[in-house]
Amino acid sequence: MPASAAHTSDQAPVPVRRARTPWCAGRREAGQAAIQTAILLPLVLLLIIACIQATLWFAGRQVAVAAASEGARSAAAETGTVGSGQAAAIEFASTTGRGFLLVPTATVTRSETTALVTVSGKTLSLIEGWELAITQTATMPVERLTAPTGPGTP
């Protein structure tokens, strides 16, 4: 039985009143979800890309630190040279950091007491034309034999 015709058998039908709503209430909300999605989706995608880019930069930085340490270890050995430190750093960065540290270069300086290795390179970028440079340095004391000094030495 329709809502407007609700009645009992001995009474006349009483129309049912519905609450009035503005005629435009449903129209104002139409398409609101699409607009919210159009605004928020690019922001969420940008946040995801930024997180991935930060992860790639951090991985490249870790490779550069490890390569600099490896080069410093090689250059600081008793028989180590500037060339051996540079070769060790480049080899480590090229093999272990393949894909995370692009075009690695190493600069090595060795004095009587310390070996300093600086590894530089670039990391992968998700945004074309945007290059993130990475430079990390490691220092190690040079191994050397010395004569004992002090009381009780012959």
Q: Could you walk me through the main structural features you see in this protein, from its secondary elements to its overall organization?
A:
The protein is rod-shaped, with a radius of gyration of 36 Å. The protein has helices at 25-29, 32-76, 82-95, and strands at 102-110, 114-123, 132-141. 42% of the residues lie in helices and 19% in strands. The chain has 154 residues and is of the alpha+beta class. Strand 2 and strand 3 form a beta hairpin. It has three helices and three strands. It has one domain. Helix 2 (32-76) packs antiparallel against helix 3 (82-95). It has a three-stranded antiparallel beta sheet with strand order 1-2-3, with helices on one face.
List the helices and strands and how they pair.
Blueprint: H1 25-29, H2 32-76, H3 82-95, E1 102-110, E2 114-123, E3 132-141
Antiparallel strand pairs: 1-2, 2-3
Helix pairs in contact: 2-3
